[in-house]
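Exercise 7.
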Amino acid sequence: MDTDQPQSPLDQENSANQAVAIEPAPEAKTRRSWKKYLVYVLAVLGVLFVMLICAVAYSQWKDNHQPIPETATIESTMSGTFGRYSDEHKGWLYVSDDKRSYVMRVVQQANIDNKREGDGLYFVASGTPLDDQPGTIYGVFYLYKDPKSGELQQVASLYQNDEDRPLTPEKVRFEALSNQVWAWVIKESPAEEDLEAGSYVVNVVLAPHDGSIKELARFNAQQKTIPEGGCAKADRDYADWQKAREQSQAQAQARAVADAAAVASDASDAEEEGNADETEYDEPTRCDDLKWTYKTNPPKDGALTPLLITRTGILQGVTQPEQTWKVMFDSKSFVYLLPNELK
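Solution. The predicted structure, written as tokens, is:
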């Protein structure tokens, strides 16, 4: 068959119809192009919207995880709690409910930023009365950021101590009892040391719990007694007392033997007479110098670490053997279960 043979009029008409059927109309082509561009625009807008949400979320997360500015936050909290700052007294002036005026000063602070529950700004303020009368106060503060809103939250408590000295930095420690719980350990001591009567220092463990500050433990830290004249004189007085007491006991035993050998009618009189001659001796006070130290295990998630409390020193002039107690924490009552020997 000759391929160059001219097409008939009918073949030419069919070819033209096929061409017309394949070639799309200009309106349909424009409509499809417009939908395609709309899809592209919506896709780009969707990506931009997602990126905007991510940027806002990251910015909020970053703000929530920024360390709390210590100086500005403490100054604001102290002013809001106690009143105006006095340049003259170098502290905040506070009038308590009993109308006594105190100068409040920050004595210790710690900004914990481990990105865990319990993180935040911890500090202690101590108050000295302006009337020079016995009695001080102190306040413990815990400030943290709300994990959802990022707003600064505060938990605080104020303590009145009629017999305690004003707190100083060395009397305040911060301890990690777990990865989620930090505590203040505060040494409370008498306002005036009376070593002749006996001076005592106690450790007070405080921690935030359920929106408040709770006392977890209160145990001995130091006991010291120095009688008038000093420890050497106290030891001599004790030796003299012990000697006199032994002589008195020996004389009483000798009288008892003599009374047993006497006539029954005279025995009761001899016993009564012997008792009348006995001399009472008060045991003299000797020196005490006891110390209780504590340790904690490395903090972990969950349960609070036990307290390992060790006692060493001298009691009534006698060196005591070292003794250690392992004090466990009761999560239900949220306190340490202290034995009576430590209270």
